[in-house]
C-alpha cells in the first residue's frame, strides 16, 4: 500500500518498557490481531516503522498499519505487508479535537447512531469508544 503518515507525538505509549521498539510493535499487533498475520516483522528507525508479513485479509493489513502508526514516536508506517486483494475502498479519518465517534458517524456516514460500526471497524485500535484522541487515524466502514 505504501507509506502512511502519522503525527508521531500522539498514540499508545509502548516504547521504553524494557523491549526494543520492534518487539513492542510486533507484540502490540500480534496481541490485537492474533493469528491474522504470519511472519510479522517490524523494523523501527527514525520514527518509521516498516512492516512485513502475510495478512489473512486486506482489512487485517489496514488494521496492522493503524495499530503501528497510532503509537507515540511513530511518524510513518512503510507497508510491505502482503494480503489478498482489497474488497472495497476504505476511507481513513484523522480524529480532530472535539470529535466523538457519534460526531464522526454523523459527518461521514450521515447518522450519529452508526458510531458502533466505526467502533467495530477499529476495535483493535480503540479499546474504549469514549477514548479517542486528536491525531488518531481510524477506518470508516461503508454504510
What would your notes on this structure say?
- This protein has 143 residues and is an alpha+beta fold.
- The protein has 2 domains: 2-82, Histidine-containing Protein, Chain: A, CATH 3.30.1340; 91-140, LysM domain (Membrane-bound Lytic Murein Transglycosylase D, Chain A, Roll), CATH 3.10.350.10.
- 28% of the residues lie in helices and 25% in strands.
- The chain has helices at 21-32, 58-69, 101-109, 115-121; strands spanning 2-5, 37-45, 48-55, 76-82, 91-94, 137-140.
- The chain has a 4-stranded mixed beta sheet with strand order 1-4-3-2.
- A hairpin with a 2-residue loop joins strand 2 and strand 3 (48-55).
- The longest helix has 12 residues, at 21-32.
- It starts with a strand and ends with a strand.
- The model has no long low-confidence stretch (mean pLDDT 93).
Describe the SSE topology:
Layout: E1 2-5, H1 21-32, E2 37-45, E3 48-55, H2 58-69, E4 76-82, E5 91-94, H3 101-109, H4 115-121, E6 137-140
Parallel strand pairs: 3-4
Antiparallel strand pairs: 1-4, 2-3, 5-6
> How are the strands of the largest sheet arranged?
1-4-3-2
Main pleated-sheet profile: 4 strands, mixed
H/E element string? EHEEHEEHHE
Count of discrete domains: 2
Fold-level CATH name of the largest domain: Histidine-containing Protein, Chain: A
The termini sit apart by 23 Å
- Principal-axes geometry comes out as globular
Number of strands: 6
The helix count comes to 4
The CATH top-level class label of the largest domain: Alpha Beta
SSE class: alpha+beta
Q: Which parts are unreliable, with pLDDT below 50 for 5 consecutive residues or more?
A: none
| CATH architecture annotation name of the largest domain | 2-Layer Sandwich
Helical content stands at 25-40%
- What proportion of the residues form beta strands (DSSP E)? 25-35%
Amino acid at each position: 500500500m505504501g507509506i502512511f503518515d502519522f503525527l508521531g507525538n500522539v498514540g499508545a505509549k509502548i516504547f521504553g518498557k524494557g523491549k526494543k521498539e520492534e518487539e513492542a510493535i510486533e507484540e502490540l499487533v500480534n496481541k490485537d490481531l492474533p493469528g491474522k498475520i504470519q511472519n510479522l516483522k517490524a523494523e523501527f528507525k527514525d520514527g518509521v516503522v516498516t512492516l512485513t508479513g502475510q495478512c489473512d485479509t486486506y482489512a487485517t493489513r489496514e488494521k496492522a498499519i493503524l495499530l503501528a502508526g497510532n503509537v507515540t514516536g511513530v511518524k510513518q508506517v512503510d507497508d510491505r505487508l502482503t494480503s489478498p486483494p482489497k474488497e472495497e475502498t476504505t476511507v481513513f479519518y484523522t480524529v480532530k479535537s472535539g470529535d466523538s465517534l457519534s460526531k464522526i458517524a454523523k459527518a461521514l456516514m450521515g447518522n450519529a447512531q452508526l458510531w458502533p460500526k466505526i467502533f467495530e471497524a477499529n476495535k483493535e485500535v480503540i479499546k474504549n469508544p469514549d477514548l479517542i484522541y486528536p491525531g488518531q487515524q481510524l477506518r470508516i466502514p461503508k454504510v
